[in-house]
């Protein structure tokens, strides 16, 4: 086996669990949840339950392949192997570009959070320091990345647990409310549980699904998991219910304490809960949490991008130099190239922020759906190949093939909802253009001598 194939298996189950949690639980829960609540009211919890159920099946589809083939590059490699060169090319580059944008967005807000404490530091300086430190961590070895991401994610998880515990203290015992229990009537007294009808729940599904973006990082880690046949199934089976617990648990507590139509009107509910129970530094605490959330998301995005580029290079769909590993078994060139593109996109967003962000975020929005749909489509191809070879997957997707087709139908429905919503309609229009660009890139690559 040559050196290019010797990525190190240094990620333990606890690392993989927190990597996926860190990717899926971000600043959206602390800030962005308010806009979803305004759409659906208390019924937003049902939207999360429905969306989380579909994500579970998508993750099981990915897990079925990841346990059978625990390789770097994840579903791009599976698409390449079971569907063809073009789908593998599109899946890999679509995923990589999506997370370059994620890196760009997370990096751009780091400076804003630092300025809360140190307003005199230019935002670009904070962003640059973050970029250098995180890039260095990602080039040491996979254990350094895993350990860093583990502790970043722990901070977010503890913050959410703290919010739930203190919220329950307000609901049951009136802590921070003059000893008067808040109760749970806010779930229905302000226009009912469905204040905006079923339409509100349906429209909220788009943002709910986007909030789950990042769970597929479990598949990316398969190539470096210490015992993928054990840790990947455990991580996938546990990650979805943990995310549902954190999202639904936290939002239910918030919706019990505050009328749904007032959430977001007076700042983050997270700050309000900690303020009400007598923690004056609530705003500073939140700023610390969202700062670590942003750095965590950037860290995970850079890791996944490095591995995806490495996988593409192994396929021949990216320059061969990107398959080079350092002595620690890390694809250092792929990590550095991903970092370099992050710098370029940050520069572009600085020079012409309105147009650049409009187009790039439109592509990012639809590329998440493309990623998940690709996972399910490739899983169907994978299962056909297994059946032809008279093999049975070690980690079978439940309710196959019904769950696969239902998941695809659901994702198609989400795209339809996006086409209905004026603010997101542009994403649907840009999708065929983006896929055409990838197709042209594939043809150019194949025509090269």
TrEMBL record:
Name of the gene: aroP_1
Name the record gives this protein: Aromatic amino acid transport protein AroP
Organism: Sporomusa termitida
Keywords of this entry: Amino-acid transport, Cell membrane, Membrane, Transmembrane, Transmembrane helix, Transport
Keyword Transmembrane helix: yes
GO cellular component, one term: plasma membrane
Transmembrane segments: 16-34, 40-59, 124-142, 154-176, 196-218, 239-261, 273-298, 330-351, 357-378, 399-420, 426-442
A Pfam family matched in the record: AA_permease
Limits of the Amino acid permease/ SLC12A domain: 15-446
